[in-house]
Every structure is written in structure tokens, then in C-alpha cells.
Design a protein that fits this description.
D-Amino Acid Oxidase, Chain A, domain 2; 371 residues; alpha+beta
């Protein structure tokens, strides 16, 4: 006699990707439980980023990052419009300082076109200054489809959609281990104030920074399929007073990130970041001594910056699965064909553009577990 599990689908992690996945499964009529170790939704990577809706420029053609960003961006704009969520299609300028950097700008443009981003426009410094009078650059790549979003409002909407279709969320409940059973279900053990145990048919690990560690707590999980988690911290500094910019301003990217860029919140307030700092452990403190490096980087494209207008704001940590100096890894959605555990998916290395790609990633996970 088969035993009915307590839940059809358990999603570990209530960040933006976990919530999008929970929503997708709940919309399909699945019985869903989301389990989060913190006291609320989106307290990690999902709330410590630039809140940018990316166009799909930076990622190798054919990669999951490229595909999910371009498709996810369209889904995200549509979702925000339908629900009237706070967002704005600000546009972005990626700037080159000199002729040497112009070649890299051309390379980015070709890559973006290969990814399906066809609205980019290469402009010279004079044209860039017509758009942003205080910007100084040799040339720039204008991305009209880049934008910003209130990420917390988005996550609240995803949570509401999931709960309205029957999903449940529990907080302050750290995951301890998953034990496969002979009937194809899993016994899941959790800590917390009381501790609990439940059974599930499907388990999805969307725990962001902790995904490799969580995967290692699945009994019979092949360790060689689990990447090593590395922490790449990025700090942000806020600009006091009114921002002179209406577009987002980005330098050319480096191996670890997209460079110290200017982004805006929904109130028009500017902040700069993130920089790059590889850490052996989690640490969200922002060191004021990093400010001179910020000033130097920003003044490359905004020479009029007054340093006393910058103050330490917040930091985020990118869930890297490659070492410092190596090219960024692609997103990994590791299903049964990777690790051999039926009805289990682990998501690794979901850094930028994870926010933009979240709805597409949720569709991908659902399809992978429903073939």
C-alpha cells in the first residue's frame, strides 16, 4: 500500500527564485510548502543586489544565463505591468573610457545580439552627454530595455500568488537532512524551536548561498555533483542628495561582476556598487575604507562626483561556484539526470541575473520535473 506524503512539493528557500518556483507549482495545482530558515522572505541574495532588470547583454550565447535573462526579462516586465508593481524601464548606458575599451564595447554588442537583444545602440561621447549631461566617456552602449524593480514588492506578489493557490510558507525552520524512502518520497527533517519531520514527493533546493551545503544534506547525494560554494561580496555606497542621472550607468564588466555602477531605486535615489571582495565566510559589514576605490571608479565616468556625498550603505554576497579570477559559471539546475535522485532539483550559482530570470527559471524547474 502506498503512503501519501505530507506534501507533494517542498521548496527550500524563500528568496525570489524559491518563491517563483513555489508560485509555478501552486498555479499548476500542486500541493506546495516553502520552508525558510530566516524570519521572512528574501533576506539574502534577493534583497542585497542592485534591483536591476537586465536586458541579457553579458552572458555567453546559448548559456542558461543568457536564455533565462532574455526570456525572463520579458516575463518580468509583463508580470509587473499586469499587477502594477513598482518598476521603471530606465535604460542603461555601458561606457567606454577610450578607444581601447571601445573594442570590448563592440564585443558586448555582438554578444547581446547573439543573445536576442536587438534594441542596443552604440553612441559616441557627445551623444551620451546629450542623454546625461554629467557623464564623461569616449562612447557608450545604450540599452533601452534595462530597468529597475522594487524587488520586495515583486517577492510579496509571488508569495501572494502562491498562497492564493494553496501554497504554505513556514519561517525560522532550518533544513537538516533529506532521507530517500523506498516508495520514492523523502523524509525531511528540520530544526527550529520545535523541530519537525515531514514527507514529500518532490524537493527543490533554492537556498541561494547555501545550496551546495543543503545539497550535501541529502542522503545518497553523490558529492562529486555538488559544486564548491564561494562567497564574493559586493558593497554599495549611497549618494546623498539628488542624482544627476536618469539612466543607469555601468562601466565595462570584469571577471567577478559588472563593475561599480550607478543604479537608482524607485524613488530616484542613486547608489553605487557593487565592488568585489572574496571572503572565506559570510560578512555583510560595509567597510568605509573602501570608499576611495569607489570614488576613483565613479569619477572615471562622473568626474564631478563630490566624495563627501558618498556613504556606506549595504552589501550583498554573490553565490559563486568558481574561484576568484575565473570566468563566472553558468546557472546550474541539477536534476535527476545529474545526481540520480528522482524528483529532486538543486539550483547552484544563482547570482545576477537571477532576479530578472526568476520566472523563467521557475518554468524550467517545473518542466524538468514534469517531463
Amino acid at each position: 500500500m502506498s503512503i501519501t506524503p505530507d506534501f507533494d512539493c517542498v521548496v527550500l528557500g524563500a528568496g525570489v527564485v524559491g518563491l517563483a518556483i513555489a508560485r509555478r507549482f501552486a498555479l499548476a495545482g500542486r500541493d506546495v510548502l516553502v520552508v525558510e530558515q530566516e524570519s521572512g522572505i528574501g533576506t539574502g541574495v534577493s534583497s542585497r543586489n542592485s534591483e536591476v532588470i537586465h536586458a541579457g547583454i553579458y552572458y555567453p550565447p546559448g548559456s542558461l544565463k543568457a536564455i533565462s535573462c532574455v526570456a525572463g526579462r520579458k516575463q518580468l516586465y509583463r508580470y509587473c505591468r499586469e499587477r502594477q508593481l513598482p518598476h521603471q524601464q530606465t535604460g542603461k548606458l555601458i561606457v567606454a573610457h577610450d578607444t581601447d575599451e571601445l573594442a570590448q564595447l563592440h564585443q558586448l554588442h555582438h554578444q547581446a545580439v547573439a543573445n536576442g537583444v536587438h534594441d542596443l545602440r552604440l553612441i559616441d561621447g557627445k551623444q551620451a552627454r546629450k542623454l546625461e549631461s554629467e557623464l564623461v566617456c569616449h562612447s557608450a552602449l545604450l540599452s533601452p530595455s534595462t530597468g529597475i524593480i522594487d524587488s520586495h514588492a515583486f517577492m510579496l506578489s509571488l508569495q501572494g500568488d502562491a498562497e492564493n493557490h494553496g501554497a504554505m510558507l513556514v519561517f525560522n525552520t532550518p533544513f537538516q537532512q533529506a532521507i530517500p524512502q523506498d516508495n520514492g518520497t523523502f523524509t525531511l527533517e528540520f530544526g527550529g524551536a520545535a523541530g519537525t519531520q515531514l514527507s514529500a514527493r518532490t524537493v527543490i533546493n533554492a537556498t541561494g548561498l547555501f545550496a551546495p551545503e543543503v545539497a550535501g544534506r541529502f542522503q545518497t547525494m553523490p558529492p562529486e555533483t555538488i559544486p564548491i560554494q564561494r562567497y564574493c561580496k559586493g558593497s554599495y555606497f549611497a549618494l546623498s542628495g539628488k542624482s544627476p542621472f536618469r539612466h543607469l550607468i555601468y562601466p565595462l564588466p570584469n571577471h567577478s561582476g559588472l563593475g561599480i555602477h550607478l543604479t537608482l531605486d524607485m524613488g530616484g535615489q542613486a547608489r553605487f556598487g557593487p565592488d568585489t571582495e572574496w571572503l572565506p565566510h559570510l560578512d555583510y559589514d560595509v567597510d568605509e575604507q573602501r570608499k576611495p576605490a569607489f570614488v576613483q571608479a565613479i569619477q572615471q565616468y562622473w568626474p564631478a562626483l563630490q566624495p563627501d556625498r558618498l556613504s556606506a550603505s549595504y552589501s550583498g554576497i554573490r553565490p559563486k561556484i568558481t574561484e576568484a579570477g575565473q570566468p563566472p559559471a553558468d546557472f546550474i539546475i541539477a536534476g535527476p539526470e545529474t545526481h540520480g535522485l528522482h524528483n529532486v532539483v538543486h539550483l547552484y550559482g544563482i547570482e545576477s541575473p537571477g532576479l530578472t530570470a526568476s520566472l523563467y527559471l521557475a518554468d524550467t524547474v517545473y518542466q524538468q520535473l514534469n517531463v
